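Protocol step 4 of 5: obtain the predicted structure for the target chain.
Materials: sequence only (see below). No template structures provided, no constraints applied. The aim of this step is simply to have a reference model before the mutagenesis design in step 5. Sequence pasted as it appears in the construct record:
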Amino acid sequence: TSFPRPLGECPSPPELLAGLRLDHPAPLHSDDHVRAAIRDLLRHGGVFKPTGRSKPASEYLIKAASDGMETINAAVDACNVASLHSGLPISVVDLERCTPPLRVDVAHGETYVFNAAGQTIDVDGLLCLFDAAGPCAIAVKDSQRTKTSGDTRRTLSLVWAPRGHEPHVVATVAWYRELLSAVGAETVDVTIA
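Step 4 output (structure tokens):
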């Protein structure tokens, strides 16, 4: 995704922020089947337990929305709206903070810092987005190292979804792109190994 200006200069419009509410009339919705499939995806590597503080980001958003979710920036707000209502975790990273090549793979023993306070998450056994420096995004919490900022102009988004949910994924991606387009962003598909 390319934004016309740095994210610090692209405020989220009220229509986008309205989507951060649970009662927003979204064009798609999650269900127990999607939630179970996402948890199974997180167990794919055989080590990770998607519960408590390590639950999928899409489940975390439900609680955050019920508590009154705050705006972060247009890129993250659009990601959160699409993820909240679809039930699919979505990672968004600043491409300028990533070092090519990028790949998706299962982590083996890695950890990373996921917030400004320096807290770490063990990503062992999880499908991760990796750059040359290591893992930088998962379906639970993205790395602080590659998170967006007010200077961000280009992002990469990854919708985490298991096989068998292709129609729901296609609908989620289409709506997510509409949300990004509404803030003046342009999106293109990319291929990651």
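Step 4 remarks: The first helix runs from residue 14 to 18. The mean pLDDT is 92.
Proceed to step 5.
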